[in-house]
Amino acid sequence: MQSLSCLPSAIFLSFTLLNLQYLTAKAAKCHVDDESGLLAFKSGITSDPSGMLQSWKSETDCCTWNGITCLVDDRVTALYLSGQPDNRTQILSGTISSSLSKLQFLDGIYFLNLRHLSGPFPNFVLSLPRLLYVYIENNKLSGRIPESIGNMKLLNVFSLQGNKFSGPVPNSIAQLTNLNQLKLGGNLLTGTIPLGIKNLKILTQLTLDGNQLNGTIPDFFTSLTNLFNLNLSHNKLTGKIPASISALAPNLRYLQLGHNSLSGQIPDFLGRFRALDTLDLSWNQFTGVVPETFSNLTKIFNLDLSRNSLVDPFPAMKVKGIESLDLSYNQFHLVNIPAWVTSSPIIYSLKLAKCGIKLKLDNWNPAETYFYDYIDLSENEITGSPFKLLNRTDYLKGFYASGNKLSFKLDTLKFPTTLKDLDLSRNSMTGKVPNAVSGLEKLNVSHNHLCGQLPKTKFPASAFNGNDCLCGSPLPACK
What we know:
Leucine-rich repeat, LRR (right-handed beta-alpha superhelix); mainly beta; membrane; 3 domains; 479 residues; LRR_dom_sf; transmembrane helix; cell membrane; single chain
């Protein structure tokens, strides 16, 4: 019986030993290779003002360090370091150490918005056998993207957006047939768009914007029907919109081809893109009319056709609500602001500069002005006063109405508290320049009929020139 009385103690001892083994296993540090690789990376960082790598200390478990994920035993599987675009202290300066090649279980590397990471393409990624996701965005890496990138056949995402890479887009990218996203925008890439991209049949995002790519847009989109985001804007592309883009109609939500040298007519088939959220064809050389089929784009929220040579008539759209519209600087004669714009329940940006509008602004009664950020009605034949319109806005940042026939007393105008930019030049305003303009960032009230002493501002004389009798700094002193 005495031996039986000892049994609970034996069970307790066994349980305690198991617990200790469990806790010891949980407290085990990450793999020595991963730790040394990460610490060598840290040693290549010359500035870390926000302390992003402060927790990276020798002889501590690197799986607990900021930005580190370990999902396979004690091995590092993801490295995630991110700054914030609007926070200038969350940066890292330095180079990316090749010692990260020791992280052989890494499946994702994310260096986002760190701003000052520099050096060439990090070739060590080519030696990481499990790598699926490469996001090295908004840094200062430069040089060429190596042709050997084609060897990384497991890659799902390859994003070098917002760096300073130059040279051509490697043809070997055609071998990355598992790619879901290819994002190389915001670099200095040259040459043509590789035809081999047509092999990337499961691609959902192709963004090559903000480079110096030339030639025509390849006619290969019948192979890329999963695309929902195509952005080729801000390049040097020429020629017409290829017919095969029509194959993207069922899924494409974002089509951005602005700031190129594309020409010809806007194709009718774009009216079949019923899922389209954003269409940007601005700053090109498109001619002719906007297709009548655009009336089918009932879900579009952002439409930018500005800076082309498009002519009347503009089709009557059937959108339920437009958020951003820019038709400026074409050859339109709209006379009135379109009814489908006036009735929109939510709109942030309206730009109809030089669109042949002839209304009296006091008579325009939009359904909603509360959310407006920007309104540009410059270079039209608009009369009246913006009093009523500006009194109905709570978030307006910019109001531009230069080159019209507006007639009102400027010093009685109520400025929204959010207003930063105001251009009312070349109108028929009278009265004085109010003190409220001193809170603006940009101002132009030149070439009106204003009079009196100017308030103290930071604006140059060009903001006030050409008025009847304004005086005081930066203009000549008042007599």
